[in-house]
Inverse folding.
């Protein structure tokens, strides 16, 4: 019996060339997407700080600002700068950094030249062990920063602790401050609330060691719970722990009456146009501080006040578009 074998002929695809090319491209995109998911997933689990840094760079690009640094005495200042037009200098609050302004900067750079520094001791700016970082000390450092950048006259905007620094700086260096904007500012007389009672008793609500405490701390400043992925929260918790001694020391410095009334005691020295902008339901700096500001400005050439609803202590993050609209109107009206 004779057997014969036949070699199978290669299968020839009957699909048109364009379909075969499309399938290859889809496969390549699928492999690339799978690899990207693995990389991003691994970064999220094991190096979430990389993803957070990448997002900051993305936001800075969208805002058309670059990061710069300048050495002033024993302090290295790191700051965002960009845009053209009238100069705005923006100062962040306690336990924050220049990044809180990024959405504001994106909306402001089409019309203004903006400078948003990390205040000394915070963010990427340097810190000297054992030095004071209270309002008065920061005002002195700010004057060095202004001189180093050769700034002449500008609109000075401060939020919370940054508002107190801005207010005191404007009172002591009015030659540089064309207009002053205080956002939910520290340093003014206000009705007592739960936060001020705890602060006077030495309780610092801005320290946290786990996600539950992080949620409690941010609830003091935000009207709604923050939607931050867990591993990103872990990065912020670790940063808080690493800077705990500085946070506690500075918090205790600011509990002195000379600090929490630092702007109140200098209101009669503010002759430039002044804006007070508050969230109506601020749990940290009670809105009654806005009345103290308005009633104490005896020599200001113009006084503007605005309140917003639906936010707590962080209008720059909770109501960015509305905040920018008010700031822009104020800056351009004088």
């Amino acid at each position: 019996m004779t057997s014969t074998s036949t070699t199978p002929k290669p299968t020839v695809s009957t699909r048109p060339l364009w379909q075969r090319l499309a399938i290859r491209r889809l496969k390549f995109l699928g492999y690339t997407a799978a690899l990207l998911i693995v990389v991003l997933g691994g970064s999220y689990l094991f190096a979430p700080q990389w993803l957070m840094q990448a997002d900051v760079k993305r936001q800075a690009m969208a805002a058309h600002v670059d990061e710069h640094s300048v050495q002033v005495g024993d302090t290295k200042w790191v700051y965002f700068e960009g845009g053209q037009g009238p100069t705005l200098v923006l100062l962040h609050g306690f336990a924050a950094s220049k990044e809180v302004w990024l959405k504001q900067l994106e909306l402001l750079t089409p019309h203004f030249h903006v400078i948003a520094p990390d205040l000394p001791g915070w963010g990427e700016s340097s810190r000297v062990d054992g030095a004071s970082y209270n309002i008065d000390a920061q005002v002195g450092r700010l004057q060095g920063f202004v001189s180093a950048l050769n700034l002449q006259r500008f609109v000075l905007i401060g939020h919370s602790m940054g508002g107190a620094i801005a207010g005191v700086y404007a009172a002591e260096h009015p030659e540089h401050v064309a207009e002053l904007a205080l956002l939910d500012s520290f340093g003014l007389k206000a009705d007592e609330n739960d936060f001020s009672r705890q602060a006077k008793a030495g309780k610092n609500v801005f320290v946290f060691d786990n996600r539950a405490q992080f949620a409690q701390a941010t609830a003091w400043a935000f009207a709604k719970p923050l939607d931050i992925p867990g591993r990103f929260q872990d990065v912020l918790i670790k940063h808080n722990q690493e800077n705990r001694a500085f946070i506690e020391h500075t918090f205790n410095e600011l509990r002195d009456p000379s600090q929490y009334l630092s702007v109140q005691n200098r209101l009669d020295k503010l002759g430039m146009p002044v804006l007070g902008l508050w969230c109506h339901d601020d749990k940290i700096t009670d809105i009654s501080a806005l009345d103290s500001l308005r009633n104490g400005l005896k020599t200001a050439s113009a006084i503007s006040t605005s309140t917003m609803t639906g936010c707590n202590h962080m209008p720059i993050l909770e109501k960015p578009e509305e905040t920018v609209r008010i700031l822009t109107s104020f800056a351009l009206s004088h």
User: Anything to note?
Assistant: The chain has a mean pLDDT of 92. The first helix runs from residue 17 to 46.
